[in-house]
UniProtKB/TrEMBL annotation:
Residue stretches making up the Beta-catenin-like protein 1 N-terminal domain: 63-174
Name assigned to this protein: Beta-catenin-like protein 1
Lineage, uppermost ranks: Eukaryota, Metazoa, Chordata, Tunicata, Appendicularia
Transcription found in the keyword field: no
Function: Component of the PRP19-CDC5L complex that forms an integral part of the spliceosome and is required for activating pre-mRNA splicing. Participates in AID/AICDA-mediated somatic hypermutation (SHM) and class-switch recombination (CSR), 2 processes resulting in the production of high-affinity, mutated isotype-switched antibodies.
Organism this protein belongs to: Oikopleura dioica
Annotated region described as Disordered, given as residue ranges: 12-39
Length: 581
């Protein structure tokens, strides 16, 4: 693939109407519907109420009359709506069933005369807005499937509106109202609602809400603000189902429902940048993480190439506004997930699609994308499948780009949230992976970097060793404090918990630093050995401390599918550690 084609890609940032990056979701809703409970607040009418399907158009007077009727029926007026009790909710659901059946009957009876069933559709539309107020009253949720109300089919009937017979804007408006209602119902975080929400998730899965939400997404016209909002909330509904489900296979089910995973990839591919694209990139990352099946699907659909083209836009440009920053980070997260190694062919595609070239150029440009580009490189050169990318990275002069960042850590990026520790961890991890995967003359080129300029990079490496060794001394105090807190709660901190906390506080970075040191010490270059020993002596330290860190690293390599390779690496590390004499 031509790297030039990737770099020439630019998304369409021109939107019709408002720019969603300039407003929050609440602001957009205020703009569309007015301030809540204000005199200016109007219920947005679906487009089908502005014209009928046989081409007969309403006059402005008729439009206003119908608007006022709808407002009256929906009881949307000045002042706050009171919470509904169980009796009122039962009545509301029974009336909903009658209105839905009436609309169905009239549609059959007056199939060729839409003006005859217009009022029943207005009633049904208004009723959905009345149901929406239940979103803030989760204690009433069980009534949606209460067997004594509509034979327990209220929720099923609500879902069925997404497949309403009308195939034009009317059905679209009702579908988006249904999705918005379900989205609001799911958006409850109070702990006391957990059991109710679990039942709700189960009902959604039983009645295939996944297909409903994906079907709605595929029909949305994002040039219309209300439909763009509906698409956003449809994705939110699917995310809520993933987060709230106890089903271990939920990610696969959501990804496969209505080809949702493919829809996300295609939506990310489109040039237009809006809040739906941002959310689609985030969901793509969620569905790819830890799923070999999903990574395979995206790889086979040229997903690596698509993600690289989207990210190329940020090579010479910093993202504008928080939403574009979020889009960029989500795209990087998705790329990291797809090349993380569960499906090895994707790393080959990344290599063939000139991914390393693009990441290396991003690092050179010193834009906001730099830290995330480092993270991607770290992913593709890691593990036992990182050999080809490691070789290619050295061949494209990646070391020349990498080591200036190793010598001087950039300051924390407040906009992306990347810290100095994040940067140092990525850099030393890349160098460690290169040390592990390279051999012969290419590895010698890497080792020689620590010799040139009077061993300046070796001095820097040892400075980082002492920095993170001090961090670990402080971390030990935190581990003891956390253990004491857990003990008061009757919980004992086991070795795995303590080790995970140490890794979080910087142990992994220290392990990578000390692994590089033992590689340099064992390289056979005498000047490197002398400089390492001299620097340690100046700080009243010794090789013993480094040896213990590397031995601990080897002992905790963990399990994996390739146990033979893991055991070989463990033995190699222990042999290097024992060479520090």
């Amino acid at each position: 693939m031509d790297i030039g084609k990737i770099l020439d890609f630019a998304p369409d940032t021109e939107l019709r109407g408002e720019n969603p990056f300039e407003r929050t979701e609440i602001d957009r809703q205020k703009k569309a519907y007015g301030e809540p409970n204000s005199k200016k607040s109007k219920l947005a009418l679906p487009a089908y109420m502005e014209s009928v399907s046989d081409g007969v158009r309403m006059t402005e007077a008729e439009m206003e009359e119908r608007r006022q009727e709808l407002l009256a029926k929906a009881e949307i007026d000045n002042g706050e709506q009171e919470d509904m009790d169980e009796a009122a909710t039962r009545k509301l659901f029974l009336l909903f069933d009658k209105r839905m059946k009436k609309n169905q009957d009239q549609r059959i009876k007056y199939a060729q005369k839409p003006e005859k069933y217009m009022n029943s559709e207005m009633d049904l539309y208004a009723h959905l807005h009345e149901i929406k107020q239940l979103a803030t009253q989760p204690h009433l949720y069980p009534l949606f499937w209460d067997e004594d109300i509509n034979s327990g089919l209220t929720l099923v009937n609500l879902i069925s509106l997404s497949w309403h017979e009308n195939s034009d804007i009317a059905a679209m408006a009702r579908a988006l109202t249904m999705i918005e209602t379900l989205y609001d119902l799911l958006d409850q975080e109070e702990e006391e609602n957990e059991e109710i929400c679990k039942v709700l998730y189960q009902k959604y899965m039983e009645h295939d809400v996944l297909s409903v939400a994906v079907g709605t997404l595929k029909r949305m016209d994002e040039t219309k603000n209300e439909e763009m909002e509906a698409a956003f909330k449809s994705i939110g509904l699917l995310e809520s189902i993933i987060e709230g489900s106890d089903d271990q296979d939920i990610i696969t089910k959501v990804a496969n429902s209505g080809n949702f995973l493919i829809w996300l990839l295609e939506r990310v591919r489109r040039r237009t940048i809006n809040m739906v694209k941002v959310y689609a990139a985030e969901m793509l990352s969620v569905l790819l993480q830890g799923s070999e099946e999903n990574q395979k699907i995206i790889g086979e659909k040229k997903g690596v190439d698509i993600l690289l083209k989207q990210l190329a836009y940020f090579k010479k440009r910093n993202p504008k506004g928080q939403e574009e920053i979020e889009l960029m980070e989500n795209l990087f997260d998705a790329l990291c997930s797809v090349v993380q190694g569960l499906y090895p062919p994707n790393r080959k595609k990344f290599l063939e699609d000139e991914g390393l070239h693009l990441m290396n150029l991003m690092i050179r440009e010193k834009k906001m994308s730099r830290n995330s580009a480092l993270k991607v490189i770290n992913h593709v050169v890691s593990g036992y499948e990182g050999g080809d990318n490691s070789v290619k990275y050295v061949e494209i002069l990646g070391l020349k780009t990498l080591f200036p960042l190793f010598m001087k850590t950039p300051k924390r990026n407040k906009k992306t949230g990347h810290t100095e520790n994040d940067h140092e961890e990525a850099i030393v991890s890349i160098i460690g992976n290169l040390m592990r995967n390279l051999s012969g003359s290419l590895k010698r080129r890497l080792v020689d970097k620590f010799v040139e300029l009077d061993h300046a990079k070796s001095e820097r490496l040892l400075e980082l060793h002492f920095k993170y060794a001090e961090k670990m001394e402080a971390a030990e105090e935190e581990v003891e404090q956390q253990a004491a807190i857990l003990a008061q709660e009757g919980v004992e901190m086991d070795d795995d918990m303590a080790y995970a906390l140490r890794l979080e506080k910087g142990l992994f970075t220290l392990q990578q630093i000390d692994y590089i040191i033992v590689e340099l010490y064992g390289s056979g270059i005498e000047s490197l050995r002398e400089r390492i020993i001299s620097h340690l002596s100046m700080r009243k330290s010794s090789l013993k401390q480094i040896r213990e860190v590397v031995k601990d690293y080897a002992d905790n390599l963990g399990d994996g599918e390739n146990q033979e390779a893991i055991e070989q690496e463990r033995n190699r590390l222990l042999e290097l550690a024992m060479g520090l004499m």
